[in-house]
Amino acid sequence: VSLSSTTRAILTMLCVTVATGGPAAAADGYSEDAVKAAFLYRFAGYVEWPPETAVDPSFTIAVLCADGVVRELARLLPGHGIKSRPAQVRTIKSLRELGDARILYVGPGHCSELSLTGVTSRPVLVVTDNDRGLDQGSEINFLLVDRRLRFEVSLSAADRAGLKISSELLSVALRVQGGRLR
Amino acid sequence: MRWLNTVRGKLMAVVLLTTALALVVAGITMLTHDLSVYRQSWVSDLSTEASILALSTAPALAFDDHEVAQRNLSAMRARAAVLVAALYSPDGTLYASFVRQGASPPASRIPTAVLGTHISAQYVDLSQPVVFNAERLGTIYLRARYDLMGRITAYLSIFALVTLLSMLVALALSTALQKIITRPLDEMATVARQVVDRRDYSLRAHATTQDEIGLVVAAFNSMLDEVQSRARALEQSNTALTGEVADRQAAEEALREADRRKDEFLATLAHELRNPLAPIRHAVKLLEAPGANDRQRQWGREVIARQVQRMALLLDDLLDVSRITRGRLDLKKDYVELASLVASAVETARPLIDSKQHILQIELPTEPLELEVDPLRLSQALSNLLTNAAKYTDAQGQILLRVSLDAQRLTLLVKDSGIGLSPAAIPRLFEMFSQIDSAIDRAEGGLGIGLALVKGLVALHGGTVEARSSGAGHGSEFSIHLPRSVIISRRLTAEVEQSVVVTVAGPRGKVMVVDDNRDAADTLSLVLRMSGHEVLVGHSGKDALELGSREHPDAIILDIGMPDMTGYEAARRVRREAWGRQVLLVAVTGWGQEDDKEKARAAGFDRHLTKPIDPNQLEDVLTAFLAAAGRH
Predict the structure, then answer these.
(1) DSSP helix/strand/coil, B58
(2) Is A77 in contact with A88 (CB distance < 8 Å)?
(3) Residue B612: cis peptide before it, omega within 30 degrees of 0
(4) Contact between B93 and A19 using a beta-carbon 8 Å cutoff
(5) Is A24 near chain B, with CB under 8 Å?
(6) Which is it for strands B476-483 and B498-503: parallel, antiparallel or unpaired?
(7) With contacts defined as CB-CB under 8 Å, which chain B residues touch A39?
(8) Which of B135, B136, B137, B139 is the best substitution to test chain A (most A C-beta atoms within 10 A)?
(9) Chain A within 8 Å of B451 (Cβ-Cβ)?
(10) Which residues of A touch B65 (CB under 8 A)?
(11) A148 — contact with chain B (CB < 8 Å)?
């Protein structure tokens, strides 16, 4: 029941996004942040983390510099699991607070200037949201194309982090960088 | 439908019908099965397709990538059967679609929320959810062409082709195979037709198989056997019936003939019985007449006696025939010398033979034959034949009586030079009342029962009678055949020399035969008696003297070697008697030397003969002597 309600919520979000487009969605309250939150949640389904990292019994998404997205995730995740574990969102102020989080979302704005060097070698899916995101060493970077949220993927970053990204995800990516398979 | 009237046609129809039926049933079953399989596999294929499509479009839906979704759906272009592929959002709005050219586009909203397969006549509609990570991302919808009619049409055309080929093969095969069945049937039918047409029941069909047809052929043949045997039996019974009818007709004819002859016989009998009455009446009138002298009265008495005698004989014959036909005549068998029997018969017939001046010639076996017969009846039979011969032969005719003996039988033959017999008359000659027509008018008359009587009497002795003639006017031959069993003589010899007795109508006298051998004496005396002489027999010299002095014979035939006195002595004594001076004395000796003849002449014999005596020679001697003595 809880799953279906989650799904319904996401679907509702998506539908609104698809039907009305980004700005309209934002104007209607289904903001860009909501779509981003949904994307973050879904990315987990197409990525495999190395097994030794699975120490934390919960699946944590850490968010840096994006309070809107945190809010949307906080509304989306409670009671729902990712990879058979309860999922949670955590707002962090610095990368040191990353902890056991599996996904790190680095919001646009001033945070995009942050060096990700200490994180990229760890098994954490880093999602950035700026024009140079992949160059910074993130695995996935959000882009806005024709007022629609798209993303690009760096396989070399994923390799470095020890993550495996499903080809299905790659098929819908706007651009894939450095992949051995592509 | 003429061909259905033949077994061949029916077999063909059965084969074709069976084949067609089997094919149709098989075809329908296979079509049903094929359609079911087709449908299942089609649905299964399509849902696999949808599942793959759902998998591939899941990320596009998840990350709202319309282009990718569109591209994924366009992959259906390669699947010719898929007409429409559409992706609907979870809220039911159309997200992306692929529409094949010519097909109608999908609804902008998903028509029913129901998932699964819907099959209509032309299409298969299939809806399947797109789920990822337990999250329903949307619905995939496929519409494919479901070409049921095309499938059926293709199937039916293949089926029609297979059926046609099967029929052709079945036709060819059955044509070849049915010969096995129809050939014996055809042959049987041909035979049956021939039997009916020709009525020839000897025809048979040849069974070539061991099956039911073979059985039928065998049964047909045995039926023909039956019919043939019945037809033959019918034919035989027809023949038998025809023969029977002919026999009955012959019997009827014979009865009619017998009736006619009986009528004739009655007429003849009346005539014969009446005939003597006229002379008797005349004689009685003469006897009653006052003016009749003794000579006339004497004549009258003789006439009456003769006619009465004639009637008595007639009645005796009638009674005898009647007894024979009723089986009431018993033979009184006795031992009798053949010659004696013959002599007795000749004696009975002699008056008629003499009165017509016939010459009778008698031929007997030289050796005496003793028979066991009824002397009276056999003699009667023989004398009947002789009387007949005399009766039906014109005056001064010739009659031969010949007795001969062969290995089987004793034959008494009477042959004459008389009026003869027509061949047609011979077969019925010995039947009752069968007097020859041409003979009826003859003076002798008669009842026509003489020969029937002869036949009956001979039959009683186990013998047969036979008549022969070269035709009318050529004389007749009558034979009495007796089995050899009637001969009991001890001195039977296979070959019997014939002695000949010639009886001429010459002078008759009283002749004495003296011989101590009784057989020899008897034989000689019989021969002489048959010649019409009165014969005395003696067996010794003493007999000769005693009989001679009492009977005064005309001639004495003396055997020389006798126990009491020699023939010479006897002759001398006879010559001394008064009655013996004129007697003809004939000596008989077993040797004929000149010396013996001289001694005989000296003793007073007139002639000397040697044994065996030739009857002709003796007869010549007697005739010459009697004629010289003026005897008649």
Answers:
(1) helix
(2) yes
(3) yes
(4) yes
(5) no
(6) unpaired
(7) 63
(8) B135
(9) no
(10) 150, 172
(11) yes
Reply yes or no on whether the pLDDT at B376 is more than 70. yes
The first and second tokens of residue B394, run together, are 């014109």
* B481, pLDDT greater than 50: yes
> How many other CB atoms sit within 10 Å of the CB of residue B328?
10
> Closest residue of B to A12, CA-based?
B91
Give the number of A-B residue pairs with CB atoms closer than 8 Å: 58
Exposed/middle/buried for B607, CB within 10 Å: 0-12, 13-18, 19+? buried
**Cα distance between residue B479 and residue B384, in whole Å:** 12
As a whole number, mean pLDDT of residues B379-394 equals 89
- Rg (chain A; Cα; Å): 15
Count of residues in chain A: 182
So what's the ipTM on this one? 0.76
Sole residue written with tokens 């000949």: B500
**Structural element, H or E, at residue A76:** helix A67-76
- CA-based nearest residue to B359, from B410, B398, B333: B398
Contact (Cβ atoms closer than 8 angstroms) between residue B333 and residue B485: no
Given CB atoms, is A19 within the 8 Å cutoff of chain B?
yes
Beta strand B398-405 with B359-365: parallel, antiparallel or unpaired? parallel
A138 burial type by CB count under 10 A (0-12 exposed, 13-18 middle, 19+ buried) = buried
- Three-state secondary-structure class, residue B138: strand
Range in B52-61, B68-77, B266-275 the model is least confident about? B266-275
> Across-strand partners of B403?
B412
Count of other CB atoms within 10 angstroms of residue B443 = 5
Cα–Cα distance between A168 and A173 in angstroms, integer?
A: 9
Tell me the pLDDT tens digit for each residue of B417-427. 988 888 887 87
What single letter denotes the amino acid at residue B622? L
Residue of B nearest to A84 (CA): B133
Cβ(B480)–Cβ(B424) under 8 Å?
no
* A151 touches B: beta carbon within 8 Å: yes
Dihedral angle, C-alpha B216, B221, B222, B228, nearest 10 ° = 150
Contact at CB, A11 and B63, closer than 8 angstroms: no
Structure-derived torsion over alpha carbons of residues B590, B593, B596, B597, reported in degrees to the nearest 10: 110
- Rounded to a whole number of angstroms, the distance from the CA of B30 to the nearest CA of chain A is 44
Residue B88 has pLDDT above 50, yes or no: yes
**Phi, psi (degrees; rounded to nearest 5) at B137:** -95, -20
With contacts defined as CB-CB under 8 Å, which chain A residues touch B131?
Answer: none
Q: Are A120 and A157 in contact (CB under 8 A)?
A: yes
Secondary structure (3-state) at B559? strand
Nearest to B68 among A11, A18, A171 (CB): A171
Min mean pLDDT across A14-18, A144-148, B121-125, B224-228 is at A14-18
Chain B hits for A21, Cβ within 8 Å: none
Q: Which of B56, B64, B66 to mutate to test the interface with A (most CBs of A within 10 A)?
A: B64
Taking an 8 Å cut-off on Cβ atoms, the answer to whether B135 and A17 are in contact is no
The torsion angles phi and psi of B467, rounded to 5 degrees, stand at -125, 145
* A11 with B134: Cβ contact below 8 A: no
Residues 98-137, chain A, touching B (beta carbon < 8 A):
none
Alpha carbon distance, N-terminus to C-terminus of chain A: 39
Tell me whether B60 touches chain A (CB under 8 Å).
Answer: yes
- Distance of alpha carbon B611 from alpha carbon B195, whole angstroms: 86
How far apart are the CA of B162 and the nearest CA of chain A, in angstroms?
Answer: 51
Is the distance from CB of B85 to CB of B97 less than 8 angstroms?
yes
Q: What is the C-alpha to C-alpha distance for residues A121 and B540, in angstroms, rounded to an integer?
A: 201
Half-sphere exposure of A161 (CA within 13 A, CB side): 30
Check residue B328 and report its DSSP letter. Answer: -
Please tell me the pTM assigned to this model: 0.42
